[in-house]
Each structure stands twice: as structure tokens, then as C-alpha cells.
Amino acid sequence: MLSLYFCTVKVILLPILFVMTCLLHVKADVLFSDSFEAYADGGLPSPTWDVYNPSNLSLAHVSNAEASVGSQSMYIRNGDSKFSYLEQNTAINISGNPDALVFSFDIKGTYSLASHEGLSSFEVDFGSGFETVLSDLGELQGGDHTYTGTTLTLSSTASSSTAPFIRYAITVPKTYFADVLSASTVRTKLSTKSGWSNLNFYVDNITVTAIPEPSSLLMLLSGFGLLFAGMRTRNPRS
Ligand SMILES: [Ca+2]
């Protein structure tokens, strides 16, 4: 009876515990997420964001006119050749010793972004001041190739205006934010600029995600292997 008990623990429970532990360890960590659903329509997205608009702050506010996620987004109306920005007020803690951080957001203009400017810059602050990651319509910045894996994907969400939402995703590896900067926190900042008067922008679905270390993924796979082996041992006819 005792041997049956130990056999049960060894063959079934231990692999399950191992897999559960690994799952907790590699769970995709969303460090920050905001799709502007929690704010009042027409209001500012405070206290999460600091908004700057040179013409009139009332021309930058949360709106229910367009959205890539949910029903609201951040609306920004730029005057002729002017820019606005959306700056994160509270620093995000970089937890879990991630292998990389992925910064993502959706943005659209009410005219073609390519011909009338649009995303002026995307910046990150790892605790030592904002630095430009993307500028001029998503061109990757940094001559030292600090940033990798920039992807632009068209949103599947239908849009009533000219330009669809475009999703940006920028990967910053640990070799930069941890090894070079010893960063423990990060903030984001997104700026828009128009070459026309009254070019409107909508920003939505801003996320910061931590990518786990590869060793954690290997642990998870080996955990599943142990679980599978345990099931085979328990039921040898299968
Ligand atoms: Ca939204």
C-alpha cells in the first residue's frame, strides 16, 4: 500500500507539480496594458498618462469614435506642423528577469500616415531619461542596433476612416536594458506630428510585455515530457 502511494506521488503528482511550477515561471508577463477603456469619453487618461498638445489640451482626449480594442482610444488632434505626446506617468517595474521586453501599440491617422506624417517618435525611459526608439513613421533608431524585431502589422479591425490602425511592436533585448543600463523600471512616450492642419490620430492598445528566458521554456518542455512519461508508465498498454 505504501509503495503504491509513493508510486502515485512519483509517477503522477511530481510531474504535475513540476509543470505547474514551470507554467507559473514562464507565464507571459504583461507588465503594462492600456486600451483607454477605463477613462471617461472626452476626458484625459489621467493619472496614467501625461498629455501634451501645443494648440489646446481639449484637442487631445479619450474618444469613443475609433478603437482597435474595445470601444475607446486616445484621440490626438495636431495643428499644422505641430506635435503632441502621450507620456506614461508611472514607471513600470521590470520583474522576473525577462530575456526581452516588447513594446506594442496601435495607431491610426485620419489621412494616409505615409503622406502626412504621423508617428513622430516612440521613446522609452529606462530610468535615465527618454531615448528615441522609433521615429519618422516607425524607422528604427539607434546605430548600435540596440533594438530588434520591429514589426508593423495591419489591424484586422475595420476602420471607417482612411487609414487603418497599424500595430507596432518593438523588442528591446536584456543585453541592453539590463546589462547596459541596469534598468529596473521603464516608461513609454509616444509623439505624433502632422504636416497638415487638423490631422487626427487615434492611439490604442498600448502594452509592455516581458519575454521569459529561454531556459524557462526548456524547463516547461521538460516538465511536459516528464508528465507524458509518467502517464505512459502508469498505463503501459497505451
Ligand atoms: Ca480601446
CATH class designation of the largest domain: Mainly Beta
The CATH superfamily of the largest domain is known as Galactose-binding domain-like
Shape: elongated
CATH architecture verdict of the largest domain: Sandwich
How many strands, which pairing sense, and closed or not: the largest β-sheet? 7 strands, antiparallel
Number of helices: 3
Helical content (DSSP H or I, runs of 4+): 10-25%
| Cα-to-Cα separation, first versus last residue | 24 Å
What does the model show?
With 238 residues, this protein is of the alpha+beta class. The protein has two domains: 1-27 and 214-238; 33-211, Galactose-binding domain-like (Jelly Rolls), CATH 2.60.120.260. It is 21% helix and 38% strand. It has three helices and 14 strands. A hairpin with a 4-residue loop joins β8 and β9. α1 packs antiparallel against α3 (214-234). The protein is elongated and about 70 Å long. 31% of the residues are buried. Residues 138-146 and 153-160 have low confidence and may be disordered. Bound molecules: calcium ion. The site of calcium ion has 9 residues, from loops.
